[in-house]
Amino acid sequence: MWSNVTAAFEKAFALMGEGNTLLNEIVATTMEMCVQSSLYAMIIGVPIGALVGVARFPGRRAVVLIMRTLMGLPAVAVGILVYLLFSGTGPFGKLGLMYSVELMVIAQVILITPVVAGFTETAVAPAYDAMRDTAAGMGLNKAKIALLAVNETKYQLVATYLFAFSRSIAEVGAVQIVGGNILHKTRVMTTAIALNYNMGQFSLALALGIILMLIVLGLNVVASALQAGLKKRNG
User: For the chain, which domains are there?
Assistant: First the structure.
C-alpha cells in the first residue's frame, strides 16, 4: 500500500521536474483564468465596497447584509446560471462563449466580486469613520475623505486581491460547468485533478495538486507578511 503511495508521489515529482507539456499547459490556462477574473473582480468590487463603506443612507444595513450573503454564493449555482444565460437557447447564446476561458472568467467574476466588495467595505468603513471628523474639520469634502480611507486600507486591499486569486484558483464547480474541462482549451488545475483522479491517473493529479498547494501557500505567506507589516505600522 505504502509502496503505491510512494510511487505515485515519485511519478508526480518527476512530471513536475521534467517540464511535462500537458502539465505546463494546464497550469498556464489556470493562471490566465485566475489573473483575469481576480483583476476584473477587483475593478468592479473595490468601488462598490468602498462606496458602501463610506456612504450613509437609509437601508445601508440591508445592502451590507445582501452583499455579505452573496459572498457565500454556491459555485455550482453560479455555473448553472451562467450556463443558462450563455447556452445556445440563452439570451447571450449568440456570443458563442460556451466552453471558453472567457466564459469561465465571467463565471468567476460573478462568484468573486461579492467577496471583494464585502472585504473592501469591512476595511474601508472603520477607516472612514476614524478620519471623518478630523478630515472634515480640515475642510475636505466627502469624496476626498473616501479616497483617503481607501488609501489607508491599501494593504488590506492587496490582501483582498490575494484572497480573490486564491478563491479563483481553487474553484471547480462553476468552471467545470461553463468550461467543459476541454483538453488543450479549458482544462484547469482543479478540473484536471478531479478528472485524473476519476480515471485513476494519480500521478498527474498529485502533481497538479502539489503545484496548486504551493501557489496557495505562496499567496498566504504574502498575505500574512502584509498583515504583519500593517500591525507593525499601526502598533
Answer: 2-233 (1.10.3720.10)
